[in-house]
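Notebook entry, structure prediction.
Reason for the run: the old model in the group folder had no record of what sequence produced it. Starting over properly, with the input documented here first.
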Amino acid sequence: MKNNFYNIPEDWYKEFNNNFNIYDKMDTTNLADPKEAFLRGNLFNNLYDPYKNYKYGTLRVTNAKEELLYNILMYKFVLIELNLYLDTHPNNSQMINLYKQYLKEEKTLCDQFEKSYGPLTLDSENIDNNSWNWIKSPWPWEGTK
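New structure, fully documented this time:
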């Protein structure tokens, strides 16, 4: 049995890598839809293992602005999940195409939100050069009126 600098047996490394290299166990043919993936925090159906009888909650939107923000966050989450997958599988054209599709959806939603409610980020193309629009609207802790 061969050991490394820390005297950890080589077979332990093999077992560790086989058990914890989740990206090799991902079933890319069976993905959750973006809404379900966002709610449960996992895009890959075969890797989602709910805790006991836990049922993840659903978020309730009360107006069009909240619905747009919810959908933007949902797509941003799915894009991060796909990005992590593509870091280890850069040649998976199916997942690259899915990433591009979701990125297009997210950009469309961001543009729609910004045209209606103002910029989301400082690098937005919809920033008014004369003032910071988000100062004019209520802060999150102030609620909506």
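Summary: The mean pLDDT is 81.
The old model has been moved to the deprecated folder.
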